[in-house]
Amino acid sequence: MRASLLQIAVDDDESVDSRRRRVASLVREQAGADLVVLPELWTTGAFAYRVFADEAEPLEGPTHEAMAKAASDAGIWLHAGSIPERDADGTLYNTSLVFSPAGDLAAAYRKIHRFGFDKGEAVLMGAGRELVTARPAGTVLGLATCYDLRFPELFRGLVDAGAEGFVVPAGWPERRREHWTLLARARAVENQAFVLACGTAGTHAGVPQAGHSIVVDPWGDVVGEAGPGEEVLSVSVDIGKVEATREQFPALKDRVLGLAGPRR
């Protein structure tokens, strides 16, 4: 599988409409790839909390329309990163969209773990409640978003749902960049799965972004890593390596579930 991660630079001076058009053009340029991945909340910036409500859109809003058309034009599977989605009841969600090469919406995932503790995304957005997988290019990929990367139980659940890899769009801050690469490799090693983690460049609402999108194989080796600026990271992903790794080192078979609590 040929995968291209588009590490988009988010500039507060660029309008959402302008960036949407620019990114759609970049997606079309990836014709020939099997899978293209965009970052988290690239339309607004992951830390631009003050504009979430104003820029929120329905699931089938302008970003859906633009990305569906770009995926169809390029003939590729597109994980279009995430958008601030406004549900019919008014609740906001951080929602990822996955499109087929025909431009159909193949999957939508509402971020489960919201960042910010008692402020920001954690109070402005609702939490997703469902694990979601997609099936591009003959494989099963589990969907997660940014802060989700810190919660290994989510990824175990996706493995139990058949995932051979994970796609993780993010708006990860530069000050915690070492955690980004460490956690991406940890999720790959412990689940014997590929991790395709696509971050943003630039500065969101005064918060410098880490960049350094990364693809990690099931043994924890880095297949490719971007730099700090806007960049297209293109890599070849050998999905067959997942089954081979799990057969050669069958650690997942030794999981022990349902343990009793400690004695008191």
From TrEMBL:
<protein>
    <submittedName>
        <fullName>Carbon-nitrogen family hydrolase</fullName>
    </submittedName>
</protein>
<dbReference type="Pfam" id="PF00795">
    <property type="entry name" value="CN_hydrolase"/>
</dbReference>
<keyword id="KW-0378">Hydrolase</keyword>
<comment type="similarity">
    <text>Belongs to the carbon-nitrogen hydrolase superfamily. NIT1/NIT2 family.</text>
</comment>
<dbReference type="InterPro" id="IPR036526">
    <property type="entry name" value="C-N_Hydrolase_sf"/>
</dbReference>
<dbReference type="InterPro" id="IPR001110">
    <property type="entry name" value="UPF0012_CS"/>
</dbReference>
<dbReference type="InterPro" id="IPR003010">
    <property type="entry name" value="C-N_Hydrolase"/>
</dbReference>
<feature type="domain" description="CN hydrolase">
    <location>
        <begin position="1"/>
        <end position="239"/>
    </location>
</feature>
<dbReference type="GO" id="GO:0016787">
    <property type="term" value="F:hydrolase activity"/>
</dbReference>
